[in-house]
Amino acid sequence: MSRLPGWLNGVGAALQRMGERLDARRAAAEGDDPLAPPYPPAEPGGSTGGDDGGTEPKTPASKGEAAGAAGAPAAGGAIPPPPAYAPAVAARPDPSAAIPWGMRVAAEAGWRLLVLAGTLWVLMRVISAIQLVVLAFVAGLLITALLQPTVTRLRRLGLPHGVATAVTAVAGFVIMGLVGWFVVWQVMDNIDNVSDRVRDGIEELKRWLLDSPFHVTEQQINDIAQNLSDYIGANTEQITSAGLQGVTVVVESLTGILLAMFCTLFLLYDGRRVWQWTLKLVPAQARPGVAGAGPRAWRTLTAYVRGTVLVALIDAVFIGVGIYFLGVPLAVPLAVFIFLFSFIPLVGAVVSGALAVVVALVTNGVFTALMVLVVVLAVQQIEGHVLQPFILGRAVRVHPLAVVLAVAAGGLIAGIGGAVVAVPLVAVTNTVVGYLRAYSHEQALRAAPEPHGATAYAIAPTSAPGSAERTGGGDDA
After folding, report:
1. Does residue 196 surpass a pLDDT of 80?
2. How many CB atoms lie within 10 A of CB 145?
3. How confident is the model at residue 51 (pLDDT cuts 50, 70, 90)?
4. What gap in Å lies between CA 265 and CA 393, rounded to an integer?
5. Which of 2, 1, 70 is CA-nearest to residue 36?
6. Which has more confidence, 230 or 348?
7. What average pLDDT does the structure give for the chain?
């Protein structure tokens, strides 16, 4: 038993000497051996002895520690480079960098356009669901833009705000009601005479077709009349349902008129508070720009409505006087119809002029219809080249292509009401966008550092002091 510890000490000393020799060989061949481990060799332990407590060599305690030492550099050393025969592995680029720049820009713009299109689609669905309310409010806004200057003038004369608003609203609604009553009265008073003249005109047109060079026979004309009669008889149910739908349209129209009247009254009286409350819904950062764009948009809308009313009145008066002297019946109702349809740019003038020509054709014959056509074209040319540029001015000028597209889109979305409000909406949007662009540019110039040196004259928003003198005095130098 007493010899056993000494035997074990001898075996331990031999094993330690073998480890030292292996470490020495590894240290000598570490720079040349490509398969050398990435961690430094373990430090040898102290000398062995009997019971005086020799130290053991320091080696990794476990495989986990060895793996950790292999994956990370030692505290006092660096990871050795890979062997020379190892193939070079190129670093993989960022996936976004592998996509071409143009495609990335298109993708960024694409998803934003999809979000915008989805927002507009939801907005259009909401507007179509409450179309009557929206059109009534827009109509009230247009009437308010027409009557607001009258309220301002009455207040300058000393009337209180409430009294001026009530007088203006009542007078405006009474005038519009009298115009509508006058049109209905004229139509009902002349309906019998017009019916007789329409029958005479159809007979005259029939004789003209028989004697014309188109070689139309009486049998063909009779066949057309018989087909038309058969079509009306076969579609009596559809015509009756259309009449019932017409009753529904009349009820909805009366509801919309009442809503428009209430909107006009409250906008005339309390429009400023409504605008201030609306500004509170705008984010604080965008509020100054919107607050500046609002009055400019209102001035644009007011100028458009007043100018359009004046142009439509001139058209109605001149065309009405022309067809009256040509002996066309229903001259006054046709003039009122031309006035109302003049609020639809381009399309309204064509439709109202075509109606006047058709009435003249079936009542007074081909020559009178041609003369009415000449009168309508002459007045419309004067309107397009003289009246609109002079009265409306540049403040509400919209490109004809934008006018046509806006009227078509408004008509498809909301019918006649949408066609009426499309152009003023485009004009107001044009004014607001232009102002916000200029406002953002001005804010950017204010936030930028002040220019100095030679670049100050190049980027300054206004001409620098003394620049005119230097420019004008170049010849005297």
Report:
1. no
2. 21
3. very low
4. 29
5. 70
6. 348
7. 74
- How confident is the model over 164-182, as a mean pLDDT? 86
Q: Is 58 helix (H, G, I), strand (E, B) or coil?
A: coil
Q: Give the Cα separation of 468 and 477 in Å (integer).
A: 14
**Helix, strand or coil, per DSSP, at residue 90:** coil
Of the two residues 114 and 365, the one the predictor is more confident about is 114
* Single pTM value for the model: 0.62
Cα dist from 20 to 12, 16, 26, 422, whole Å:
12, 6, 10, 96
Helix (H, G, I), strand (E, B) or coil at 315: helix
> What 3-state DSSP class applies to 85?
coil
Coil/strand/helix, residue 160: coil
Tokens for 146, please give them: 């027409």
Any residues with CB less than 8 A from the CB of 286 and at least 6 apart, and which? Answer: none
Backbone region of residue 406 per phi and psi (left: phi > 0; alpha: psi in -120 to 50; beta: other values): alpha
389: region left, alpha or beta (phi > 0 left; psi from -120 to 50 alpha) = alpha
**Alpha carbon distance 424, 410 (integer Å):** 11
**pLDDT average, residue stretch 107-118:** 92
Q: What is the dihedral of CA 448, 452, 455, 461, to 10 degrees?
A: 50
Q: Which two tokens stand for residue 272?
A: 């400023």
**Are the C-beta atoms of 250 and 257 separated by less than 8 Å?**
no
Distance in angstroms (rounded) separating the CA atoms of residues 195 and 108: 64
Statement: residue 468 has pLDDT above 50:
no
**CA–CA separation, 170 vs 383, rounded Å?**
31
- Pick from 427, 415, 401: which is nearest to 298 by CA? 427
Structure tokens at 38: 């990435």
Cβ atoms of 197 and 205 within 8 Å: the answer is no
Identity of residue 227: N
The CA-atom distances, in angstroms, between 279 and each of 292, 437, 438 are 11, 19, 20
User: From the centroid of its chain, how far is CA 85?
Assistant: 63
Rounded (10°) CA dihedral 341, 135, 426, 441:
150
Q: What burial class does residue 419 get, using C-beta atoms within 10 Å of its C-beta: 0-12 exposed, 13-18 middle, 19+ buried?
A: buried
Distance CA 270, CA 262 (A): 12
Give the span between the Cα atoms of 33 and 122, in whole angstroms: 72
- Please indicate whether residue 369 or residue 447 has the higher confidence score (pLDDT): 369
| Per-residue H/E/C for 170-229 | HHHHHHHHHHHHHHHHHHHHHHHHHHHHHHHHHHHHHHHHHHCCCCCCHHHHHHHHHHHH
Query: Which is more confident, 16 or 274?
Result: 274
What per-residue confidence (pLDDT) applies to 66? 44
| CA 124 centroid distance within chain | 12
